[in-house]
Specification:
Chain lengths: 205, 321
């Protein structure tokens, strides 16, 4: 069996590496090694991990088209679910430590702080994507409709990067890095769709 | 025509070798990806454990000048205080500053005191250490929403200002931090204009709580905490307490200050700790005390209202924030 056909191996590899940061955070937390402000660190780490996994899902299509790594497609759902997993962890950290479980205050917070509103909106957009990630749901929705729904990932990621950019006090190096990568990934899709439209036009006439 | 698809059996990899190679490849991918993921995590995770290597400073006892801390307020550990710093000249990552500021040269040092004064002069390190030092344990509230309790060592700024004799025209005091991009290469990512500048009204600067700190926990300041000399204004947000001071200038107008230059809508000249005036992007009503998991209500003037509220009588603190 060649590497690209060894789906079981890919699955194990992605499952393990996706979970590893969460395990390391838990171990560090248990040993009291999360620095002076553990809450701030966990909030930032889970937020950044959400963005990382979102970006990774968006990387799959270009890598397939450019390098022919079609085997990646079978792991994309797992990567996307990891984005949702870390997004949930990020939201829970906020609810537990920033809001002290005073869920009523979340409404006011969303209203008052635009970056919270953007973050919350992006998270809520991820919920239907996670719910419709099962094979049964894909079948039920039908391929094209499912694909259309899952293009929401673009907006989730844009929202995530914006959310990160706004909260930073002055050093935007990391959010800028994410913004550049995201721009490249979205730019690639724009270029491809233009090419496709041009290619299709002569045949249509 | 020769059949190119036919491979002689001598060239076929024996099954055992093939499986071994695959096992080796898989193991390498496992190890490589695990190391990469864990390594990436480690790069961004905090690395505390800071040793107090400062030289001891002798202090004298003094009658208390402040409201006592509440019974449940504990002094933060040295590792907390010296391992979690906002010092953008070195890094914007608070747990990175200690390592990045390790080799910062703070001796020789000179603080140039001038402007609207009778006797301008430079104070070198020895001059500063000649002032009678006291220990002051203050709350320290960062504008970001976290706080600590820090046992500073230093002397009231008023003692130094009295030596240079401010002119009657002087109304404000401007401060400037040392800046050298060669020693602070990461400052290019700071996103704020440097050198860092701060300012106080003269009556704030002369207030007995306002300290020029040369140490903490009984020893000279660690570089990351603003060695060799920094300002401490306990009733204002932490960024007012400018680090590694090289210049103090008496003026007849409000001096520019770094954070209000960077973002005038978010950071004002006064920046008094005030639970009722929120930062535009977050609430200031509560704070997270480093070392605690829950949050505490933020106190007006950081708990020093009794000592300083009179300075702001008649002012609208939501306008002069």
């Amino acid at each position: 069996m060649t590497f690209s056909a060894d789906t079981r191996f890919h699955r194990q590899l992605f499952l393990f590496n996706g979970l590893l940061p969460a395990v390391l955070i838990l171990i560090d937390g248990w040993r009291g090694k999360l620095g002076a402000n553990p809450v701030e660190f966990v909030t930032r780490a889970t937020g950044v991990l959400t963005l990382v996994f979102l970006i990774l899902t968006l990387l799959v299509t270009p890598l397939r088209k450019i390098y022919g790594w079609n085997w990646l497609l079978k792991q994309r759902r797992l990567v996307g679910l990891y984005a949702f997993f870390y997004g949930c962890a990020h939201l829970l950290t906020y609810l537990a430590y920033d809001r002290d479980w005073q869920l009523v205050t979340v409404v006011g917070d969303v209203y008052k702080r635009p970056f919270i509103a953007i973050g919350m909106f992006s998270f809520l957009l991820m919920v239907p994507l996670a719910v419709t990630s099962t094979n049964a749901m894909i079948k039920k929705l039908g391929g094209p409709r499912w694909a259309q729904l899952h293009r929401l990932t673009y907006y989730v990621t844009i929202g995530g990067v914006l959310h990160y950019w706004i909260i930073v006090k002055s050093d935007v190096t990391y959010p800028f890095f994410f913004a550049v990568v995201l721009a490249l990934l979205l730019g690639y899709r724009v270029v491809m769709s233009i090419k496709k439209a041009r290619g299709a036009a002569p045949r249509a006439s | 025509m020769k059949d190119r698809s036919h491979i002689p059996s001598s060239e076929v990899t024996p099954e055992e070798t093939f499986l071994n190679r695959r096992f080796f490849m898989k193991s390498a991918i496992w190890a490589g990806s695990t190391l990469a993921t864990a390594g990436l995590y480690r790069t961004f995770s905090p690395r505390p454990e800071v040793k107090n290597t400062g030289a001891a400073i002798a202090t004298v006892a003094e009658p208390s000048v402040q409201t006592a801390l509440a019974a449940d307020e504990k002094v933060n550990s040295f590792t907390d205080i010296a391992g979690y710093n906002n010092y953008y000249e070195f890094s914007t990552d608070k747990s990175e500053v200690a390592a990045k500021a390790k080799d910062f040269v703070t001796n020789p040092w000179s603080v140039q005191v001038g402007g609207l004064v009778q006797k301008p002069r430079n104070f070198d390190l020895a001059d500063l250490l000649k002032f009678e030092s006291v220990e002051r344990t203050y709350r320290f509230r960062c504008v970001e929403g976290w706080s600590m309790v820090i046992p500073w060592v230093g002397f009231p700024l008023s003692k130094l200002l009295n030596q240079v004799e401010p002119l009657s025209a002087a109304t404000h005091v401007a401060f400037e931090t040392y800046y050298d991009i060669k020693q602070m290469p990461d400052s290019r990512y700071a996103g704020i204009d440097l050198p860092y500048v701060e300012g106080l009204r003269l009556d704030e600067a002369m207030h007995p709580l306002t300290l020029l700190a040369t140490g903490l926990y009984g020893k000279t300041l660690p570089n990351q905490n603003g060695a060799p000399v920094r300002l401490v204004v306990p009733w204002k947000y932490g960024f007012k307490s400018i680090k590694s001071v090289v210049k103090i200038t008496l003026m007849d107008r409000e001096p520019p200050t770094t954070w209000s230059l960077a973002n005038p809508g978010e950071y004002g000249f006064y920046s008094n700790v005030n639970p009722k005036v929120d930062h535009p992007r977050w609430s200031q009503a509560h704070e997270r005390r480093i070392g605690e998991m829950g949050s505490r209500p933020t106190l007006m003037f950081n708990g020093y209202a009794e000592q300083v509220a009179h300075l702001y009588k008649g002012m609208d603190l939501s306008v002069d924030f």
